[in-house]
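agent> call fold_tool(seq_1)
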Amino acid sequence: MIFKSCLYKINYYLQKLIYFFAPLIIITCSKEIPPNVIFILTDDQGYGDLGIYGASDIKTPNLDKLAREGAYFTSYYATQPVCSASRASILTGCYADRIGVHNAYSPGSKVGLNPYETTIAELLRMKGYSTAIYGKWHLGDAPKFLPRNHGFDDYFGILYSNDMWPKHPQQGTVFNFPDIKLYENETPLRILEDQTFLTGALTDRAIDFIEDNKDNPFFLYLPHPQPHVPLFAADTFRHTQERGLYGDVIHEIDTSVGKIFETLKKEGLDDNTLIIFTSDNGPWLSYGGHSGSSGIFREGKGTNWEGGHRVPAIVYYPKRIPANTRIDAPAMGIDWLPTISDFTGSSLPETKIDGASLVPLLTGITTKSSHENFFFYYRTNELHAIRHKNWKLYVPHTYRSLNGRVGTNDGFPIPYEINTIENPALFNLETDPREEMDIANENHEIVEKITKIADSIRWVLGDRLMGIKGNEVRPVGRID
């Protein structure tokens, strides 16, 4: 263990030296200019919250246009149905359980994304890119875990979810959150009292960053705190959508995307910019009218049913991606890092990752998924479900549900009930995407086959429900 720790430290410091000096020594000798990369992430947005995905009560013209001029996935999965774990997967290309990240970190957490892990920002920084993050971090609020220790040159935003503040509806009974602060790099600027300005402020910072870096490649990570509750929209967007305040919030985010795209066009960068738009997990259904829609899919955030993971995913890069590309093959948040690496010609991390490049799917080389199997973890290292091709098997576990009840429109949650899956449950997602018909009893061979696949990943990534730690799990970052 001591030897392994020393290797991590040596590798870490070598990488940091490379990331620091690379932009100073890189000479642009290739005729091919690498693409700029913009990754826009929303918080708790559901599958059914964009026009291109079937929403009729929210206007999202800019995102719909981006999808029509690029590609959109109909079966894209956030890696976990919860904030910190999902975001860790996006940035590292790993299942969150491989790198020890679980659940959603609270203020003052003693753990965070290990600085020894390699992020998209670090890969692109080594390639000579300028890097920035404007929005919600949520991968540890201790100094060693902050964004500029993970490859970002610039940071502006909040360190965890926007409801982790004294105004939380359960403050004092379940939680004891401190004041939430707006940060500039490592410096807290002020206490965040009102959030109506925040989407606009993050957009303005993004535009400034694009304009400042128009002559060199850049990576912009824009993880919006919205539409996570509590919902906030600027006054000019209030009462503009049929979906109410939630629709207003999505409409403002859509307008933000439009402003960023217009800036790219103005600077002549739109043809050579890779834009990715997705959500960190499905909607928080207990908030009723203040939550998003899972579309036709079952359940939402905090469960491994389809509605907890299946979210919008749009990719635009006209140099390589044909317009009107609809991708039905499944993909997951673990795939973004290798995809970006592939498009930009960047080196993959030296440590093992779980994702695979989506470039063959996006460019039309293939229509088949890069993976035969997807693994759905939740809580602290609990394996709940496995997707194998078009089959999805749920292993015994408990999950939360409203069980048909509908939340209110006042911004306060209603309580979940706990359901139990006592025996393996099997669904065919091709014929039953709503997951209404358990066909395990009629398909014993399929159940047995996927159960063996589940056993194989348990020895790799672990499974607390089975008492297995996993032999390829790397340490999460910790503070004393």
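agent> call fold_tool(seq_2)
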Amino acid sequence: MSKKRTSGNTRKYELPYNPNDRDEVLSFWKEATTHRGVAELRAKRGRPAKNPSERKEQIALRLDADVLAWYRAQGSRWQTRMNAVLKAFRDASV
């Protein structure tokens, strides 16, 4: 194997401090924020959790094709509107 050619002025590292000087290293990292494990560093995905009373339940519902087509034709958030109609029917029936 041949050695990688580099110019004489190329630094082996690009650090804002001298790694051989203990005081300089400690003063640089003094302001760093410590973490408490890998789980803390992972990105939090999805929406925030809701209270159990606010959560929705996923079900399989069989509807007529024309009813489903009509709701979908209303645009985005058609499922939310369908839920509101069902709630209104529930409240009117009581």
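agent> summarizing second result for user.
The chain is about 40% helix and 0% strand. The longest helix spans residues 78-93.
agent> awaiting next instruction.
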